[in-house]
Write a structure and sequence with these properties.
The complex is a heterodimer. Chain A is an all-alpha fold. Chain A folds into two domains: 78 residues, Four Helix Bundle (Hemerythrin (Met), subunit A) (Up-down Bundle), CATH 1.20.120.1200; 47 residues. Chain A is 74% helix and 0% strand. Chain A is extended and about 65 Å long. The relative contact order of chain A is 0.05. Chain B is an all-alpha fold. Chain B is elongated and about 50 Å long. The chains are: A mainly alpha, B mainly alpha. At the A-B interface, helix 1, helix 2, helix 3, helix 4 and helix 5 of A face helix 1, helix 2 and helix 3 of B.
């Protein structure tokens, strides 16, 4: 077995264990830290799949921003008491996701995909050209989506408790 | 490199862990984390098909970049909604958010 395949199985195993930890951990902070591990490992998988730019993006966006956002949200929303983290109906979720996994397993292994020859590295120049020519319209739409999400998040999250500046201005 | 089927099984497992997390957790932030897991699984699958089944084609990677963009926007909005709900009800238990239930 070649080295990159061994590396893939190791990284995939760590990712799956970390993801399992995210959904079963008894502490929200442990869940967040395991999610960071899982997301950074996903970046390594992109690296093994020869998508180096995407690996960089993954580690910058998820390893940096998303994890900090999640930890801030956890700190800003402390529960009064130590709550039960799972629903009473968690077993239903386990059965559903298990059945879905069985279905996906059968579907993945049913067909033989054609061996397409050696994987090729795509240069950053080609990626940039494709993004700004073939995919220019979706790219611009994505930037508008990000802008709207930013404004929406600001509008939703700002304080409107009675007595605050915004509430007084709205009632005036 | 590994066969595409193994990557599909791996991403399928990752996606199902996310589905379990969404269905089993009560804390809204943990639900958002599970959604991130699902989005990641899909993005890995897109890149894997782009690299291994259609080598030299760029579309898989471009789709994955869009998935990352949308995931960032979704998480920002989701956490804003969570903060707002916490301020209104001082709880982020998804069972308590039942304003729209008949």
């Amino acid at each position: 077995m070649e080295l990159s395949a061994v590396a893939f199985y190791v990284v995939a195993g760590v990712t799956l264990v970390a993801a399992l930890g995210v959904v079963v951990a008894r502490s929200v902070v442990y869940a967040a830290l395991l999610l960071i591990l899982s997301l950074v490992m996903t970046g390594l998988i992109y690296l093994l799949l020869l998508a180096d730019f995407l690996a960089l993006i993954q580690i910058l966006v998820y390893g940096g921003t998303v994890s900090i956002l999640l930890l801030f949200a956890l700190m800003l929303t402390p529960p009064e008491t130590r709550p039960e983290l799972n629903h009473r109906g968690w077993a239903l979720g386990a059965v559903t996701s298990g059945a879905l996994f069985a279905l996906l397993l059968v579907a993945s292994l049913a067909d033989k995909w054609p061996a397409a020859g050696a994987a090729r590295h795509i240069s950053l120049v080609d990626l940039g050209r494709a993004l700004f020519s073939t995919w220019a319209v979706p790219f611009e739409v994505a930037s508008v989506v990000l802008l709207v999400a930013l404004l929406g998040a600001l509008t939703i999250a700002r304080s409107t408790s009675p007595g605050s500046k915004i509430a007084r201005r709205a009632s005036a | 490199m590994v066969p595409i089927e193994h990557i599909m099984v791996f991403t399928g497992a990752l996606f199902c862990l996310g589905v379990y997390g969404v269905m089993a957790r009560r804390n809204a932030v943990l639900v958002l984390m599970a959604i991130e897991l699902m989005l990641n699984a899909v993005a890995i699958n897109l890149v894997a098909f782009g690299t291994l089944v259609y080598p030299g084609q760029i579309n898989g990677m471009v789709f994955a970049i869009f998935v990352v963009t949308i995931a960032a926007a979704e998480l920002g909005l989701g956490l804003a909604i969570v903060l707002r709900v916490y301020r209104m009800r001082s709880s982020i238990n998804v069972d308590d958010i039942d304003l729209m239930r008949w």
